[in-house]
Amino acid sequence: MSVFSFQFVIGALLLATVFFYLPGLFIRRLVLATCNVGFIWLCLPNYQSWIVLGAFVVSGYLVGVVLRRLPSSGILATYLLLLVAAFLVCKKYVVVQSLLPARVWDYPIVAIGLSYLLFRQIHFLVDMMQGQIDDVSFASYANYQLNLFGFLSGPIQRYQEFHQTWANWTPLLNSRHEILIAFVRLYAGLLKIAFSSVILWMFSHERDFFLSDPGLEARSVFAVLLKFSIMFYCYPIYLYFNFSGYCDVVIAAAALVGIQMPENFDRPYLSRNMIDFWTRWHRTLGLWIRDYVFMPMYKAVAERWSRQTAVLVFPCYFLAFFLAGVWHGSTLNFAVFGVLHGGGVAAAKLWEVQVVRRVGRKGLKHYLASSPIRAAAIFLTLNYFAFTLLFFPHDLSTTRIVLGHLFHRIGA
Amino acid sequence: MSDTKSELQDIFRNVFADDELNLTDSTSADDIEGWDSMMMINLMIAIEKKFKIRFAAAEIANLKGEGQNIGTMVALIEKKTNRR
């Protein structure tokens, strides 16, 4: 089931209409829990997938309870290792496929929702171990993990935020105007998703031209470059409208039933570098990587080798975003995507260091305030992101064919 | 200026290599150029050493969140060191 479906929209509107007429906290929790299970029921095709999902959620909760009573990095590390290994197997990652017998890969598990569940689980366990979660029950944790408004593709909500609603469920929108805005946002999100499908068609059309069009040689270089430019820019436009449209729908629908989901986009194509980009694009993922991968990793490195921090920060950036890239999908193109993003983030930091070295911190302030520099930085960042997306929607061989045909025609 | 804030100001000046840096309760990450994730961790390590405390991942994340400033950082340090 997709949020861009008749069932989801009608279901969300019905739920929003009746939810705050429901008497008492218990009934509201029960109704949300029922909707969560119903939603996932429509997403998962078989009982094996339910067993995997249940094992992830139940084990995460139990280990979380143990970690709160007995904070131990060893227990956390061991469980996370097993969890990530299970995740790689369930998602059928290319790198693990050669390690296990072929019959293992015939199982009918559909790993919908596991990617986001993994991030929420890691955050929950770390925060439980570090004493940052005071109040938890299995019901609240299970509904946090299976919350239909973030189950498929985020945003990645933190447990503490969800629990605030769970503990005291009151309307989030307190005026007719706020409710109207939420409905408008929901419909606008649907329109954005619909529009994105047109852009995706344009992208696919131009990509197929580079993959199979026999008339490539007959076209002028200008015509070929124009077609490539359309393909190059259509995918970022498609991705923004599709994903931000999805987020508009789920954030607005959640707000109508009193759940505040975190915002996921903040004008990402106005970012001035790749560090800035990840605080604006898929923000909840960027912030999760910062909080639970980059910062702990860099802190551990900086505490151990305090004199080399200025150099060691770069592998930390690289590794954090490489992992983020690999998380996006199970094939090698996502590893390339991650490496390019790690490189982009590291390059942005290196550039800032050079600017500070040349003009000092006060000079950096003037540099950042300059409009022409800002415009150039936005242009470069947008184009770099569009370039990385050449490795996002399809496998490496497809990208190689597209780029090969392009360079062959230009060079001819 | 409280003892905690005064000690914090010394740490900030040292980490950001800026002797003219003056902290107020309302100073936030937006007011100090270059206060990114890396500098945040450098700050946290220096603060942890100075005050002999440890920050959780969620606490560090919150300190960089919206509406957070030096006032909330001082309050967290004082809570952890029982200075209040």
Short description:
With 412 residues, chain A is mainly α.
Radius of gyration over C-alpha positions of chain B, nearest whole angstrom: 12 Å
| Overall number of domains of chain A | 3
CATH architecture of chain B: Orthogonal Bundle
Low-pLDDT windows of residues of chain B: none
Largest sheet composition of chain B: none
Q: Cα distance, first to last residue of chain A?
A: 47 Å
**Any idea what the shape of chain B is?**
globular
Unreliable sequence segments of chain A:
none
Structural class of chain B: mainly alpha
Question: Remind me, CATH topology of chain B?
Answer: Non-ribosomal Peptide Synthetase Peptidyl Carrier Protein, Chain A
What does this protein look like?
The complex is a heterodimer of chains A (412) and B (84). Chain A is mostly helical. Chain A has three domains: 6-167, no CATH class; 176-256; 268-411, no CATH class. In chain A, 73% of the residues lie in helices and 0% in strands. Chain B has 84 residues and is mainly α. Chain B has one domain: Orthogonal Bundle (Non-ribosomal Peptide Synthetase Peptidyl Carrier Protein, Chain A). Chain B contains four helices and no strands. Chain B has helices at residues 3-15, 37-51, 57-63, 70-81. The longest helix of chain B has 15 residues, at 37-51. Chain B starts with a helix and ends with a helix. The chains are: A mainly alpha (412), B mainly alpha (84). Chains A and B meet through helix 12 and helix 14 of A and helix 2 and helix 3 of B.
